[in-house]
Amino acid sequence: MQTVEEVDDFAAEAHAGQVDRIGVPYIEHVRAVAAGLTPFGPELVMAGLPHDVIEDTDWTAEQLKAVGVPARVVAVVETVTNQPGVLYGEKIKRITSNRDATLVKIADNAHNSHPDRAARLPAEQRDRLAAKYRQVRDTLWAAADSKHIEVILSIVNPSLLAELREG
């Protein structure tokens, strides 16, 4: 898999039948994340597409490499993947030590925080997730170039631009 289109097809197949918290096909989420990474080149777009594959399917990093996902892409996916027994704060520390993983997670956070998505959640869940996503943004944004963050937000979730400029 050497093209974005091939990785997109793979991600669509890997997430086939999955829906997100609001009942939307999961592939729409990963495609939105990938779209926010377009200005940073095809490898980062490729990383955005399968960013949840290891976490949410039976696929492993080794299997991704075996089917031709570039090793650099797989490394970014591994960095953003939850690992059993690793606290969320530790995961974010790991992510922010890698520029590309940080950008993927910023795009992921931005899409998860999108007002159109949040509005479709029950109030309690919406409030809990909004607080979680807001808290982690401080760490993610501190680890990235503000111009890069602005580019991602303008594509994925422009409603966060005011928050970025306030910070």
Brief synopsis:
By secondary structure, the protein is mainly alpha-helical. It is built from twelve helices and no strands.
Secondary structure: elements and pairs:
Elements: H1 4-14, H2 26-36, H3 42-48, H4 53-56, H5 61-66, H6 71-80, H7 88-96, H8 99-112, H9 115-118, H10 123-142, H11 146-156, H12 161-166
Helix pairs in contact: 2-3, 2-8, 2-11, 3-6, 6-8, 8-10, 8-11
Keywords:
167 residues; mainly alpha; 68% helix
Structure description:
- The chain is mainly α and 167 residues long.
- The protein has 12 helices and no strands.
- α2 runs antiparallel to α3, α2 packs across α11 and α8 runs antiparallel to α10.
- The mean pLDDT is 95.
Structural class: mainly alpha
Give the DSSP E fraction (strand runs of 2 or more residues).
under 5%
- Overall 3D shape: globular
- What gyration radius follows from the Cα positions, in whole Å? 15 Å
Mean pLDDT: 95
Instruction: Please report the distance between the alpha carbons of the first and last residues.
Output: 39 Å
What is the multimeric organization of the chains shown?
A: single chain
β-strand number? 0
Q: What order do the helices and strands follow? A: HHHHHHHHHHHH
User: Helix fraction?
Assistant: 55-70%
The major sheet is characterized as:
none
Q: Work out the helix count.
A: 12
Stretches where pLDDT is under 50 for at least 5 consecutive residues are none
